[in-house]
Amino acid sequence: MYHLNNQIAVVTGVSHAQGIGAAICRKLAESGADIFFTYWQAESEWLKDFQQEIKMKGVQCACSEIDLSKDTASIRLFDHVTEVLGFPSILINNAAHSKRDGYKKLDAQLLDDHYAVNMRGTLLLSVEFARRFEQSELKKGRIINIISGQGQGPMVEELAYGATKGAISAFTLSLSAEVAPLGITVNAVNPAQQIPGGCQRS
Known about the structure:
The protein is of the alpha/beta class. It has a single domain, classed as NAD(P)-binding Rossmann-like Domain (Rossmann fold, 3-Layer(aba) Sandwich), CATH 3.40.50. The chain is 42% helix and 15% strand. The chain has a 6-stranded parallel beta sheet, with helices on both faces. Helix 1 packs parallel to helix 2, helix 3 crosses helix 4 and helix 4 packs parallel to helix 5. The radius of gyration is 16 Å and the shape is globular. The relative contact order is 0.15. This is Oxidoreductase YjdA.
């Protein structure tokens, strides 16, 4: 039950109680992992209660508000988590930006907003994790990228979201081959395949 004891997990996009990010944190904590999660514009009272909930499972828990669309977000995140908990062996790229668009609404700004979080943020977090992991004493690492149903059929009025999530699938495949010699596995997971009725996005 506690097979993740002494491991540290970073989970992005944990901004409300019913989100996928919060569910991931709970499950990892129940397996013994210490948790560091990021959020964006979440209610302070909920954050306090959620941290306490995670700590009640017998693990450490810290968090930080980070705008993952910023160029330096990946560096600041790993600097912070290493300072307060230590360097993580698990990275869950769960944060996502999603605004309904469709061909009538899609413009450069909407596309850039999706790209900044869904693609660039995920890519930079993943490679920063791998670079630092290579310099650490850890032997096994995990990167899990949360995707959506973009490969299973049309996502009407979700053009930017579907396109950027689709890019994550391609990135995952290539990165997994690059970092396998380091002891890092890289996988993409579509929670909608496991959750009846689909999923909420953070």
